[in-house]
Amino acid sequence: MDNIIIAWRHKVLVYLLYFSVPNRQVIIKLDIIELERRDVFMKIQNLKYMMVVAQEKSITKAANKLFIAQPALSQIIKQVEKEVGASIFVRNTSGVTLTEEGRIFLDFAENVARDEYRYKKRIEEVRSNAAREVRVGLTGTQGTYSLPYFLPQFKKKYPMARVTLVENNSGIIERKILDGTVDIGLIHPPIQVDGLENFEISHDDFVIIPTEQSHYQRYIYYREGDDRPYLDLKFLQDEPIAITTPQQRSRRLCDEVFLRAGIEPRILQESKNLITLDALAQVNYATVLLPRKQLSAELKRRAYFFIDPKYAAYYPLYVSVAKGAYRSSMTEKLLAFLRSLIYTF
């Protein structure tokens, strides 16, 4: 990037990005906000210096972090304050704090830095064809269930897209979204980290699949206006069950259901994999609780039972991205495509 400036003209602040492409120079206007009438030009680097000072709350600490001399940094602060016509920092014995005008200026500076990064990334994508890739994080079970509903259609619509699957548990996927190594995550709540934007794409219910030799018949009941069979949770009090491990979100949901129902089921087997539990249910190893939509074809032919809504045995699937993070054009396309599929599977 050859040069970046911010220009005040006629009570309007406009910041521009200048960068070179073959045979011509391109100028992109990024933002406009109102400020005092004056003609000023400021380098974007000075904005970044001001952001570090605000973060460190000390000119000395900021200078050390930036590897520049403190007098030089102090001079830059004075220059910027003169250019904007307002005091940005208040000096005191412990360091510096932002003024009211300074907080407004800092917000603007952060927007400039964020937009600069986004435009650099877009230009980089155009030059390297990286814009075609989108990295999707999901668990192995979600890969089995959800991918067939969107990946073939998405690839048909965007044949040049390169979808990279990152398979791990939901907690790791969340962290990978935040550190930028995953663009879009398909995860189950509860969300355990800050900094994510989420929307629900699919809704599921946990159901009970008793073993065929279990004496569950007397616990079956129906709710008014609902022809689906339900099972009284008292059945689980002494029934051997297979269930996911305590660290998993599916297990936390089940434990909350047990707590609300006031029961302590007898756990015969734990597994990290819902597919493993499905397989154990098929051979009548134990009664299991599984998401209904993710049941194998074999279990869907078996008797399975819903859980009363008062116990909130809901298992939604979220699409998650990092708040405020740069998104490639292909990531934006996949997000829009997933939004078009909300509650269709």
Question: Could you please describe the fold and organization of this structure?
Answer:
The chain is an alpha+beta fold and 345 residues long. Helices cover 38% and strands 28% of the residues. It is built from ten helices and 18 strands. It has helices at residues 44-56, 59-66, 70-84, 100-128, 140-157, 170-179, 249-261, 274-282, 297-300, 329-339, and strands spanning 3-9, 12-21, 24-34, 40-43, 89-92, 95-98, 133-138, 162-167, 184-187, 196-202, 206-209, 220-222, 229-231, 240-244, 266-271, 287-291, 305-306, 317-322. The strands form five sheets. A five-stranded mixed beta sheet has the order 8-7-9-18-10, with helices on both faces. α1 (44-56) crosses α2 (59-66), α1 (44-56) packs across α3 (70-84) and α1 (44-56) crosses α4. The longest helix has 29 residues, at 100-128. It is elongated and about 80 Å long. Residues 1-41 have low confidence and may be disordered.
